[in-house]
């Protein structure tokens, strides 16, 4: 977006912020406890486990049958602070390749300490996983099924030096 179109987008954003964004001391407490898990699809359980556990160093924590689809595996990885990244395989269903759609997943941003961010970048290099590095804080890449991930070295609740939660 450039010129007038971008200026109009900025005006809309400022209007939304003025109408909906409350100062921290005026915000009500959230009704949520946190993200229990984010669920993605896997076309190959072993490949997914090797990628998330071996390359990204997210420990596999549990694996059982999906209650909603007999024969499907539901498995979980620890991504810190009591949060999990979960997967389903759906044997027998042709789900097709990953596609970004309106209302769908754009990417999952996972915060890692700066020293771990550097180590994980090296791990991605060793595994020949391509990535886009932005602002020396974010690595964007896709998992083996095309889901987009971001490793961000900003602390939880912060982005670009601003408190967002």
Essential attributes:
3 helices; 10 strands; 4-stranded mixed beta sheet; 25% helix; 26% strand; alpha+beta; globular; 165 residues
Strand content: 25-35%
Oligomer type: single chain
Strand arrangement in the largest pleated sheet: 1-4-3-2
Low confidence ranges:
none
Report helical residue fraction. 25-40%
Anisotropy-based shape: globular
Radius of gyration: 19 Å
How would you classify the helix and strand content by structural class? alpha+beta
Largest sheet: 4 strands, mixed
- The averaged pLDDT comes out at 92
Order of helices and strands: HEHEEEEHEEEEE
N-to-C span = 28 Å
Number of helices: 3
Q: How are the SSEs placed, and which strands pair?
A:
Blueprint: H1 3-20, E1 37-41, H2 45-55, E2 60-65, E3 73-78, E4 84-88, E5 108-111, H3 114-126, E6 132-134, E7 138-142, E8 148-152, E9 158-159, E10 162-163
Parallel strand pairs: 1-4, 5-8
Antiparallel strand pairs: 2-3, 3-4, 6-7, 7-8, 9-10
Explain what the structure shows.
Helix content is 25%, strand content 26%. The strands form three sheets. Strands 1-4-3-2 form a four-stranded mixed β-sheet, with helices on one face. The chain starts with a helix and ends with a strand. It has helices at residues 3-20, 45-55, 114-126; strands at residues 37-41, 60-65, 73-78, 84-88, 108-111, 132-134, 138-142, 148-152, 158-159, 162-163. With 165 residues, it is of the alpha+beta class. A hairpin with a 5-residue loop joins strand 7 and strand 8 (148-152). The longest helix has 18 residues, at 3-20. The chain contains three helices and ten strands, in the order H-E-H-E-E-E-E-H-E-E-E-E-E.
């Amino acid at each position: 977006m450039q010129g007038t179109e971008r200026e109009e987008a900025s005006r809309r954003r400022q209007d939304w912020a003025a109408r909906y964004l409350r100062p921290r001391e005026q915000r009500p407490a959230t009704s949520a406890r946190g993200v229990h898990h984010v669920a993605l699809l896997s076309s190959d359980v072993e490949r997914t486990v090797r990628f998330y556990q071996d390359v990204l160093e997210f420990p596999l924590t549990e694996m059982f049958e999906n209650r909603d689809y007999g024969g499907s595996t539901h498995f979980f990885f620890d991504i810190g602070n009591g949060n999990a990244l979960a997967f389903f395989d759906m044997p027998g269903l042709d789900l097709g390749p990953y596609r970004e759609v309106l209302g769908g997943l754009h990417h999952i941003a996972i915060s890692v300490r700066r020293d771990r961010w550097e180590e994980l970048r090296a791990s991605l290099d060793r595994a020949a996983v391509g990535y886009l590095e932005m602002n020396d804080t974010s690595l964007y890449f896709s998992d083996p099924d095309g889901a987009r991930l971001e490793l961000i070295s900003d602390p939880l609740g912060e982005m670009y030096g601003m408190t967002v939660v």
